[in-house]
Design brief:
Layout: H1 2-5, E1 8-10, H2 11-34, H3 42-76, E2 81-83, H4 90-109, H5 114-142
Antiparallel strand pairs: 1-2
Helix pairs in contact: 2-5, 3-5
């Protein structure tokens, strides 16, 4: 009975969903950071727009791309049809909630100035967006 309620998709579409989620969150983080630019002076803007992408490339190269490859391999090891929520391990959902809570806390308390948060948001957002192409490449190889 419960098996009928579980939303299942083919694992190749789960890989595409993972890529879309990573791209979407990456774009969202960059959009949030861009809304702060009007409050920055020119040097803070230059700092955010130079260090953020550099940080993003480093995070993508040394961390997120490897994580995306491991994630795609894990998904491909599943049976042909799998629960749509399996695009992340269940432990990662806990980490996601913690990271979202920390981001909300940092944005809402002003303990860290926005001009210092912006490069971090741009860096993580860019890294997620860049690394999402690991999923798209894997998806296209399954076609």
């Amino acid at each position: 009975m419960l098996k009928k309620l579980k939303p299942e998709v083919k694992r190749k579409w789960l890989i595409m969903l993972s890529g879309l989620m990573w791209s979407g969150v990456g774009i969202l983080l960059n959009w949030i950071a861009s809304k702060w630019f009007h409050t920055f002076n020119i040097w803070q803007t230059v700092l955010a727009l130079t260090t953020g992408p550099l940080l993003g490339f480093a995070i993508a190269y040394f961390g997120f791309s490897k994580l995306a490859k491991q994630n795609a391999n894990r998904i491909l090891a599943y049976p042909e049809k799998v629960c749509i929520f399996a695009f992340q391990r269940w432990q990662m959902y806990i980490l996601i909630v913690i990271m979202m809570s920390m981001g909300f806390f940092m944005r809402s308390t002003y303990l860290i100035p926005r001009f210092m948060l912006a490069p971090v948001y741009i860096g993580i957002g860019s890294a997620l967006f860049i690394s999402s192409f690991v999923y798209y490449k894997r998806f296209s190889s399954l076609q």
